[in-house]
Design goal:
two-stranded antiparallel sheet, 4 strands, mainly alpha, 371 residues
């Protein structure tokens, strides 16, 4: 779907509103997730100080020694110093990510606390917001789809995704040291990879910025964009697991909402980047993701019922004597959250408004996708 400023702004509004709902939900304080949060916070504080002593101090001593040697021999060791700075940043970021990584491990080894948090948040939205005409409550419809857990398979997929992102970042960073072409590696890699996952406009913007900014900043931006996308995928895992969407279907799901998801993920990513409190931020973002889901998708159909969208999901056409299978559409109804829809459109059902945005935010107009 094409990008729009209204779509990004809508995503930002939904995450802010979702955070407000999460903090006002009395049921969240009763979940096991908070107990897990406190354990991980205490562990992360201990790990942080111990690791800074074991890793951070030796790197600082090495950099100080390098500078003394450079000044004495009048040699240029700026590249080595830059590499040590990069290594120190990597170690520090890794340490700060320990609590969040712990939560993600827990999601795949024991996902019930986060799933309960997600479903409780959806129920709270159903209770507090008036439903439009003809729309059924979301939580009961989603709860009918069992939360199927493939512990080992899900865990392996998570490790593969994490390793792939890490390998890509390190590979691109290594290529930047090549003479002549090194400065063009990050812009080209950034544009190519971002276009495939976040859309053409974001990809071109990142590519242009990478030409202007130093490579270290460009890599940080690129890593942040992929982390934002990966975070949203993890936050919506309770929904994807219930709907049994494969990798291709999930990619299609994201492409149809890429501008709204981008606005949402930007704020959610800031929450989990707060030092020491990333786990608590993840919990709040998990609850906010439930609010997002309710407002950008329709409640799933009951099992055994096939909608017209589902019947037309797999189409076949004949081209030059060959049968060609078209891209499979999602067999779940979805909503387009755009602010550019014309006022007075529809009869209140097909194009019915689900909520009114306050001043300063786009008018949320929701319409069914037709594939």
């Amino acid at each position: 779907m094409p990008w729009s400023v209204d779509g990004v702004t809508t995503g930002i509004y939904l995450v802010v509103k979702g955070i407000t709902f999460a903090l006002s939900n009395p049921n969240i304080h009763k979940t096991r997730f908070l107990r897990t949060v406190f354990y991980l916070l205490a562990t992360s504080i201990i790990i942080y100080f111990v690791s800074r002593l074991l890793v951070g101090i030796p790197i600082s001593i090495l950099r100080f020694t390098l500078r003394l040697t450079t000044s004495a021999k009048k040699t240029d060791n700026s590249r080595l110093d830059s590499f040590l700075s990069f290594a120190d940043d990597i170690v520090r970021d890794g340490i700060m990510s320990v609590p969040l990584v712990g939560v993600l491990f827990i999601r795949y080894l024991y996902p019930k606390p986060l799933d309960d948090l997600f479903m409780d948040s959806i129920r709270f939205v159903d209770e507090k917001e008036a439903l439009p005409e003809g729309r059924k409550p979301y939580a009961p419809a989603l709860a009918k789809y069992g939360f199927k857990i493939d512990y080992w398979g899900n865990f392996l997929q998570y490790l593969k995704r994490t390793f792939k992102r890490l390998r890509l970042s390190l590979f691109v960073y290594t290529l930047t040291f090549l003479p002549l072409v090194g400065r063009f590696v990050v812009p080209i890699a950034s544009a190519y990879t971002v276009i495939g996952s976040l859309g053409l406009y974001v990809g071109l913007t990142v590519g242009v910025c990478s030409l202007i900014l130093p490579s270290a900043y460009s890599i940080t931006i690129l890593s942040s964009l992929f982390a934002m996308r990966g975070l949203t995928r993890e936050l919506l895992e309770p929904y994807f697991a219930r709907m049994a969407l494969n990798t291709s279907e999930r990619a299609t799901w994201f492409r149809r909402r890429e501008d709204v998801i981008f606005g949402f993920s930007a704020i959610a990513y800031m929450l989990v980047r707060v030092p020491m409190f990333s786990v608590l931020g993840f919990g709040v973002a998990q609850a906010a993701a439930a609010y997002l889901l309710v407002h950008i998708t329709e409640p799933p159909e009951e099992k055994g019922l096939v909608t017209e969208e589902g019947k037309e999901g797999m189409k076949r056409r004949v081209t030059k004597g060959k049968v060609v299978k078209e891209e499979k559409d999602e067999d779940i109804p979805t909503l387009d959250v755009r602010g550019a829809a014309q006022q007075g459109q529809g009869n209140g059902r097909e194009h019915g408004q689900f909520m009114q945005f306050p001043g300063g935010f786009p008018q949320g107009q929701f319409r069914m996708y037709q594939g």
